[in-house]
Specification:
The chain is built from five helices and five strands, in the order βαβαβαβαβα. By secondary structure, it is an alpha/beta fold. The chain has one domain: Rossmann fold. It has a five-stranded parallel beta sheet, with helices on both faces. Helix 4 links the parallel strand 4 and strand 5. This is Tartronate semialdehyde reductase. InterPro entries: 3-OH-isobutyrate_DH-rel_CS, 6PGDH_NADP-bd, NAD(P)-bd_dom_sf. One of its GO terms (biological process) is organic acid catabolic process.
Length: 120
Amino acid sequence: MTMKVGFIGLGIMGKPMSKNLLKAGYSLVVADRNPEAIADVIAAGAETASTAKAIAEQCDVIITMLQTPSCERGGAGENGIIEGAKPGTVLIDMSSIAPLASREISEALKAKGIDMRMLR
């Protein structure tokens, strides 16, 4: 069984990283607030999801690469990762968001039994 990876945020760094995951043979589900950003990744074989929650519900590993401090699309908020993640999910957050926002997401995931390690 192939590990299913979710990738949220396919900008300048996220798009090439997601393409490398496809080349490595991973099953990939992507989301970005800009539909044009994911078009060529979809053409390369990725699936798309309409929300971060949908990605979290179906993926073993989730990578976020968001560029704004407002992390509602990625972690917190309605239809975010927190709502869809299940115990055992691995979250790799490479976003350019405030450390406090990452800590808040980590605490909310911890309450669901999901470990998000933070480097300090």
